[in-house]
Design goal:
Blueprint: H1 13-26, E1 44-49, H2 55-66, E2 70-75, H3 87-96, E3 101-106, H4 111-116, E4 123-128, H5 134-148, E5 155-159, H6 166-176, E6 181-185, E7 202-205, H7 208-212, E8 217-220, H8 235-242, H9 246-249, E9 257-259, H10 272-275, H11 282-302
Parallel strand pairs: 1-2, 1-3, 3-4, 5-6, 5-8, 6-7, 8-9
Helix pairs in contact: 1-5, 1-11, 2-11, 5-6, 5-11
């Protein structure tokens, strides 16, 4: 993985397998609580989030603490960035304090890569613009493995705002390494044609019924209104054509797994009936986020 974890695209399948296997060790058994370790005792992890986040930031903080590390969480609104300090100066200041790793989320694509060239400290990408969200793809893969036992030979539909989704990109890069057939679906304005060329085994459609037919997994995406100059569809119209409803599940495999990276917009991307159904693995994704991020932090800091 080199220094830190910046993306899925450059990882080998063997590196991904190692992280997923190790994350299994960190999962609690049925009815058990997460175990605490001292693997990273004496280490300090800084969570630096320039974008709002609940799941990812909290998950990284819990993961680090359960490995025995000290943590410090900083948001843009509570840092000197709000006073006009540049990104490089902020990171240089943090670097001078000598944390052992920085977990970073930023609205600019490539920001973690840029800073990794300036700082000797390992940087873990917690989402950069519309580029990648590597730990989300890893926790999604862990969740699929828990439900289906394998990634090989699966057919997976990713539905929603593909254009602005770093989650979609990271998942495509990961799943393509396992020969998964990925179907991307969304309105034409949110489904760039070039997405069909970023990895083998990817196809595109604007029809949700066609996308879902005979799939093993359905990944729904949030409509990222904050990255759009104007809404592509009114909420009720979007839900009519691209919202996941109970009748859609009848088109998929009988044991189809429904996923969503969150936060969920019920009634826009997915119905409550589906989100709360037995087919939903959404809360499993949240739980697996801690185990996967424990595996990533251990690999980055302890080898």
């Amino acid at each position: 993985m080199g220094k830190g974890l910046l993306e899925i695209e450059s990882l080998t399948r063997e590196e991904i397998d190692a992280i997923l296997a190790r994350s299994k060790d960190f999962q609690p058994g049925p009815g058990q609580a997460f175990k605490r370790f001292d693997i990273l005792k004496g280490r300090t992890v800084v969570n630096l989030f320039f974008e709002a986040s609940t799941r990812t930031r909290t998950s990284f903080e819990i993961a680090a603490k359960r490995l025995g590390a000290d943590t410090l969480s900083i948001t843009a609104s509570g840092s000197s960035v709000s006073k006009g300090e540049s990104l490089v100066d902020t990171l240089n200041t943090l670097g001078a304090m000598r944390p052992d790793a920085i977990v970073m989320r930023h609205e600019a694509s490539g920001a973690p890569h840029f800073l990794s060239r300036y700082l000797p400290i390992p940087i873990v990408n917690a989402g950069d613009g519309t580029h990648e969200h590597p730990t989300q793809a890893l926790l999604d893969a862990r969740t699929i493995l828990d439900r289906r036992g394998t990634l090989e030979g699966l057919r997976i539909a990713i539905i929603g705002d593909i254009a602005h989704s770093r989650v979609a990109r990271s998942n495509i890069f990961l799943l393509s390494k396992y020969g998964v057939q990925v179907v991307l679906c969304g309105p034409a304005s949110l489904l760039p044609r070039e997405m069909g060329q970023i990895a083998p085994g990817v196809s595109l459609t604007n029809n949700i019924e066609a996308a879902i037919r005979d799939v093993d997994v359905i990944m729904m995406l949030r409509v990222q209104l904050e990255r759009q100059h104007e809404a592509a569809f009114p909420a009720n119209e979007y839900f009519q054509f691209f919202g996941l409803r109970p009748e859609h599940l009848e088109l998929a495999k009988p044991d189809v797994v429904v996923m969503h990276p969150g936060p969920i917009n019920r009634g826009r991307e997915i119905s409550s009936e589906v989100a709360d159904s037995q087919r939903s693995a959404i809360l499993n994704q949240v739980e697996n986020g801690i185990a996967v991020r424990m595996a990533v932090l251990e690999r980055v800091l302890a080898g």
